[in-house]
Amino acid sequence: MSEASFSAADTAFMARALQLARRGLYTTHPNPRVGCVLVRDGEIIGTGFHERAGQAHAEINALRAAGDASGTDAYVTLEPCSHVGRTPPCADALITAGVQRVVVAMRDPNPLVAGRGLARLHEAGIRVQSGLLEEQARALNPGFIAVMERGRPWVRVKLAMSLDGRTAMASGESRWITGEAARHDVQFWRAQAGAILTGIGTVLADRPALNVRLEPEVLGITGAIRQPLRVILDSRLQLQPDAGLLQLQGPVQVFTCSTDVQRIQALEARGVMVQRMAGAQPALDVVLQQLGRTGVNEVHVEAGSTLAGALLAQGLVDELLVYMAPHLMGSLARPLFGLELEHMAERVALAIQDIRAVGRDWRILARVAPAVSIGVGAAG
Hints:
five-stranded mixed beta sheet, 18 strands
């Protein structure tokens, strides 16, 4: 197996494979987004991407499109699987098809694969190379990688604020801080998440739907929209069985510390998954670990400053998605995060990934640097 340099043509073909992988952005959950390109004599003869869990993987779709794939070079964004899951091993399919060379963007962090796919290809006499456009490939699957490497999902916190960093008036009034274009843009981020997380305070105050309200053609997909799991942190189990969001399509899970059997049974009768936890409040790290174990790769958080601040203070936030509106709300309005910082050394460092206009607002995407221990209020 080789980590050798790659040609301009190799880079172009892998870039095409990455484009294909992105077509599964809203549909592959909980599987990773993967694309594959088959090339013979410098010409693409077959392409494929993984669309939905349980369906054919990218390599299989590319092989089917090519027909005869003997003597080809395969460009795959993620190491071909070597184990039997819901589909047969893709490494074996490439071997059987007579592929002569396989270039992968990144090795699979899944312990069931973890280099075994590349080793199987190499043992079969296929030339194998890895690491081409690896950074771009990793960016396609932050949640899948996070769950495999650290045991909890990728956490993205969405926030809307005024130019002076306020999220609601002192009374709690917050509709609407941003414009319609920004609210429409949020739908695409919800659609790619495995779960949307909020606290009971937000549910009671704002009555959010927390679902995806787009048509399949807007997302560029075929088939039905996948509604993310809606997760509510509700320590005292205040959610009512007739709550508006329970009338909508899609699964709902509640994490609570309540022992009220009647309330639990009433919610379960409505199809809500209720998980009781020890203590006075659900432990945020345990909640995320549990979601990761049940197949949630990306968690999209839409919550108030208290829960957002608690997640940030505990080092559980990977990314901030902030919509900034061109107006001022004043010093009495509520802040972006419920954080109690006293010294400059306690500042939370961010790495800006992208800033762009969305309608009349601005969207800021920022990565969170490793967290320090900081003061924070209760999570809810």
